[in-house]
Design goal:
This protein is of the alpha/beta class. The chain has ten helices and six strands, in the order βαβαβαβαβαβααααα. It has a six-stranded parallel beta sheet, with helices on both faces. α1 links the parallel β1 and β2. The longest helix is centred in the last third of the chain and has 15 residues. The chain is globular, with a radius of gyration of 17 Å.
């Protein structure tokens, strides 16, 4: 059985232990180590490469934003999932810009955190609903440009349905359930959106759609 190799990075030992316990309950996940800051995380990856790094943001010596940027540059194949209590735009947007593939809050359920690990490992970005809302609102408030919608290739009705649910922070499984389709169909729609707009992941889809003013978060 294929294993998802995970490194947990957080300066609170209790949080590291809890997160490790949450995700290690899945037989396909192997927590290969823990680190208490970005420097320790990089040193660990130099010895033993993980598939997914669960990264806190606020840590001493090297914070999560700095560590994420360094890891993304040195090991682009390593996926980074931010798991933190911080939900302000001054942390969310820099983490996503630095290369994080997902951003979840620590008050997310254990199931949501495990799903986040699986999502980023499979190349799918994972965002908490509040984070998706923050991202959309921030982009629209700082750089509103409805005219940019004309620069994006139009979406089909079903692709737009997927996009609107994505903007609400839904996972592929949740989107599939709400649309009464398979997860494979959802992935195919997302793939076509990325291809049409020449983007690499779900985060970039949200940013482009928010800039164009074609997503609405309620």
């Amino acid at each position: 059985m294929a294993q998802i190799r995970v490194l947990v990075v957080d300066d609170d030992p209790l949080v590291r232990s809890a997160l490790s316990h949450f995700v290690a309950r899945d037989p396909e996940v192997d927590v290969i180590g823990q680190a208490e800051n970005g420097l320790e995380a990089i040193a660990f990856l130099e010895r033993d490469l993980a598939d997914v790094v669960m990264m806190d943001v606020q840590m001493p010596e090297m914070n999560g934003i700095e560590a994420t940027a360094a890891i993304a540059q040195r090991w682009p194949e390593v996926r980074i999932l931010a798991v933190t209590t911080l939900d302000g735009s001054d942390t969310v947007l820099p983490m996503l810009s630095a290369g994080a593939s997902g951003y979840l809050l620590k008050d997310s359920s254990a199931e949501s955190i495990l799903a986040g690990v699986r999502d980023v490992h499979s190349g799918v970005s994972s965002l908490s609903p509040r984070i998706a809302s923050l991202l959309v609102r921030h982009v629209r408030s700082t750089a509103p440009s409805n005219d940019s919608a004309d620069a994006l290739e139009p979406l089909t009705e079903r692709e737009n349905d997927v996009l609107q649910r994505l903007a609400k922070g839904m996972s592929n499984a949740e989107i599939a359930q709400s649309m009464i389709v398979s997860e494979g169909t959802v992935k195919a729609h997302l793939g076509r959106i990325m291809s049409k707009w020449q983007l690499r992941d779900r985060v970039q889809i949200l940013v482009a759609a928010a800039h164009a003013g074609i997503v609405d978060f309620r």
